[in-house]
Each structure stands twice: as C-alpha cells, then as structure tokens.
Amino acid sequence: MPDVAETARPLRVAVVGAGPAGIYAADALTSQDAVPVAVDLVDRLPTPFGLVRYGIAPDHLKMRALRETLHHVLDHERVRFVGNVEIGADLGVDELRAHVDAVVYTYGAAGDRALGVPGEDLPGSLAATDVVAWYTGHPDADRARVEQQVSRARDVVVVGVGNVALDVARVLARSPAELHPTDMPQHVLDALAAAPVERITVLGRRGPAQATFTTQELRELGHLAAATVLVDPADLTDVGDVALAAEDRHVARNLAALADYAGHEPVPGTVGVRLRFHARPVRLLGTDRVTGVEVERTTVDADGRAVGTGELDVVPADLVVRSVGYRGHPLPGLPLDGGTVPHEAGRVLRDGAPSRGEYVAGWIKRGPTGVVGTNKHDARETVASLLADVAAGTLAPRGDDDWVDTLRARGGHPVLLSDWRAIDAAEIALGASRGRARTTIHDRGELLAAVRTAAGRLEG
Ligand code: NAP
277 C-alpha to center of ligand 1: Å? Predict the structure, then answer.
C-alpha cells in the first residue's frame, strides 16, 4: 500500500445518509488505522439516525436505544455530521464529488410499493410508509391526511405479513398507557387514543410458512394490554407448511406461535387482531372512500407462489394500510436499476464499470431487507472495497476545499453536531414537560428553531 498515512491530509469521504448504513460506514472508515479518513456524514434531515429514528417502531424502546450506541460514531473526532442538506437538490452529486475524494451513498429506500389493484388510491388507503412516517414524527409525514384516516378507522386491514405490517398493527392496537413511554409526538398519541379501532385484519397472500415477520414480533402481539390475536385454525393445516417447518426452525417457531393464537376467541372490549393467510387483495371497495377489501383465497404452488382459487370474499375496512415493502428512489445523477444502485462489492457501477470514488451501502445497495445489524456487515464490505482502492492507488486525497463553505455561500443552513445536540436537548425538555423521557419534534421549522434558540443563547 502507498504510504497514505504520511500524506498531508486525510482522505475526505462524504457518506450520504446518516441512517444505520451510513453510520456503520462512517464507523468502519474511522475505526481503521491504515488510511487516515475524515468523514462527512450528510443527511437531508436536520436529525441523524434514519430508520432508527423514523422506522423502528416507537414502542420498541430497546431497539430505539441503539441510537445511544450509534451516537459514539457521530462523536468521533474524524466524523462531521452535516444535516439539513439534500444531495441531489441543495448540492448536486457531481458537485459533491468534485469537493471530496469519495462518496458512499447510504440514503436507503424511503419509497413505498403499490399493490397494483383497483381502488388503491381511494381515501382510506395508505402506504405503511405514510403511517410509519406519521407515528415516528418524520418531518415529511402528511399529518392531516393520516390523522383524518386514522380518526375513522374502526375496521383496519393491513396488507402484508412482514415486520412492518406487524409494527403498524401493533401500534394501532396499543392502549394509550402502553404508548405513553414512547417518544411519539403528542399529536400522534392523541390521535391514536381517539381512534375508534376495533378490528385489525392482517392479510398474507401466501401461507403462514411464507410469512416474513420474525417470531419475536409475532409473539409480542400476544402480549398487548388490550388486544386479542386471532388465527383461523384452518390456516395452519397445510401439509406443505408442516413439511417446511420440519426443515426450517424459523417457520416451525412461527407456526407454533400462530397455533397458540388459534385457540383464541374474540374478547369484547379488546382490539381483535386477526392474522389471515392465503388471502390476496383483489381490489379495494368503495366510491368516496374505502369500505372494504375484496380478497381471493389462494394456495401456494410448488415454487412458493400464490395461486388464486377464484374464491372471493370481502373484509370490511375503513382504513387499508399496504405494507408490501419499501422501494429505493433515484438520486439525480446516480444510476438506479430496479430500486438499487448497481454495484460490485459496494463499488458503484456506471455503464457496467466501477466509477472512481463512488460507493454504496445499506438498503439502496442490497434492497430493503435485513435487520439494522445487517447494515454493519454490508457497510464493512463497501469500506473494504474503498480501502482496497486506496491501497491499489486508484483513490487518493485530491483537492482541499470544504463543500460545506460552498453550501453556506449559497444560503444553505447545514445542521452540525452541536446543532443536533440542541435539538436533542429540546426534545428531552419537551418530553419532561409531559412526564415523558423524550417527545419527538416532528416539524422541520421547529427542529431548526431549536437550533437557532440554542445558538442565540450561546451568543447572548
Ligand atoms: P417484507 O418483510 O419484505 O414484507 C413484505 C410483505 O408484503 C410480505 O408479506 C409480502 O408477501 C407482502 N407483499 C408484497 N407484495 C404484495 C402484494 N402485491 N400483495 C400482497 N402482499 C404483498 O418487508 P417489510 O415488512 O417492509 O420489512 C422490510 C425489512 O425491514 C425486513 O427485512 C424486515 O424484517 C425489516 N424490519 C425489521 C423489524 C424488526 O426487526 N422488528 C421491524 C420492521 C422492519 P410475499 O412474501 O408473498 O411477497
């Protein structure tokens, strides 16, 4: 390896997206000694943590506490958090590349996927991404739209049987007392407390053996204070499922948890959460707004695909939440192929060839799969490629100017670590005013006002 350690300045790397993948990439870059690296961890929001803040369900307090661990990376002397900057809008990809030596794209997969059935655009039909953004206090959430739908939601249908579907069902089924310890914005707690939810049906288009939720999340549903989980025993008798369970411990555990629920009867005064399988949505019914979901019974063929039987029925619904996966969106100036950035071991490919100084990690690299920790291995692979390129002499420190100065000169207001600390303190103070550990500030203007107030105090 060339003696990079003795060059005048460190390799300057911009990591675009301060969620788990970006933070793990920053960690991998700064926790090695072979190549001195300075990282700019950039996010379009004024807050770090991405899906740890705006994805992990607020009632998963232990998982959300992961941000304490991730904060150590933000605190590293060679990491600079630069929030409130949208690469591709405030600063072009090419402009950023001209200022830094390498860019690692870790901006995730924030878009929703459609069901592609008639009626999907009716009022009363939402994407899980809309609901999750709302209940986590994402600045871009369409608060009025979601609250209007939630306020009428007596019968809810959640389409999909992944962990996000269970998150949405669980949050809607929780009692106000269970949600109080979370950091949800107060208006979310109030709207959920007032929502008339009585029944939630979670629809799997294939069988229980093909469900992608994890057993822990499935079992958690059974421990809610005011909900009863219901499963039709007939959904658990497929011989194919039994055979799969013999081969796969995850399937066996899920089927065992579902079998426990299969004995339950609805309990008056509790929210009934029905997990229903072999039920594919065919269309959403209603004229002015959703009134139900027409579903077709399915069987699962030898290749694991859902095959319609032609047998139809209707599940009544005032609110339909499709939770059928996330989708990556294009960043202007960056190639995207089917929702992910084409790459080779984390090196971005342009026209099939590795592009000098461009890397990718996280969901926008591999698609929206895996748990938070999966991003650690993923980011390490990408950073290993970057460091190998330095060793091979294809990547080296070049220019010497600071892109953040350029951004400020054109009127941008980057949020740095001390600013984020001011937001953090404001959220803790807001929580304390209501006897809570923290209350998320959802409004972008208020997030930035917390920064200005703290800066004013310092100056005064
Ligand atoms: P997911 O696990 O891929 O689940 C998507 C669900 O949507 C599947 O049940 C899928 O069924 C269904 N689906 C897709 N297209 C459909 C259609 N046209 N009609 C009906 N159903 C359809 O995705 P996710 O729940 O969005 O989760 C994303 C990732 O985040 C996952 O890796 C998940 O484990 C992770 N996550 C983890 C946690 C946690 O650890 N607590 C919490 C949230 C998210 P098919 O299988 O039949 O396609």
Answer: 14
3-state SS, one letter per residue, for 158-207: EECCCHHHHHHHHHHHCCHHHHCCCCCCHHHHHHHHHCCCCEEEEECCCC
Say whether both 332 and 321 belong to one domain.
Answer: no
C-alpha 68/C-alpha 438 separation (Å) is: 14
- Whether ligand 1 lies within 6 angstroms of the CB of 159 is answered as yes
Q: What is the pLDDT of residues 233-266, one digit of tens each?
A: 999 988 788 888 889 999 999 999 999 999 899 9
Pick from 61, 334, 298: nearest CA to 161? 298
**pLDDT > 80? residue 5:** no
pTM reported for the whole predicted model: 0.96
Indicate if ligand 1 lies below 6 Å from the C-beta of 217: yes
For residue 263, the model assigns a pLDDT of 86
What is the average pLDDT across 175-180?
Answer: 97
363 and 271 housed in the same domain: no
Residue 160 Cα to ligand 1 midpoint, Å, equals 6
Q: Identify any residues that bridge with 80 across adjacent strands, giving them in sequence order.
A: 40
Residue 122's nearest CA partner among 265, 258, 264, 320 is 320
Q: Do 21 and 73 share a domain, yes or no? A: yes
Query: What share of the chain has pLDDT > 90, as a percent?
Result: 92
Domain with 226 in it: 112-325
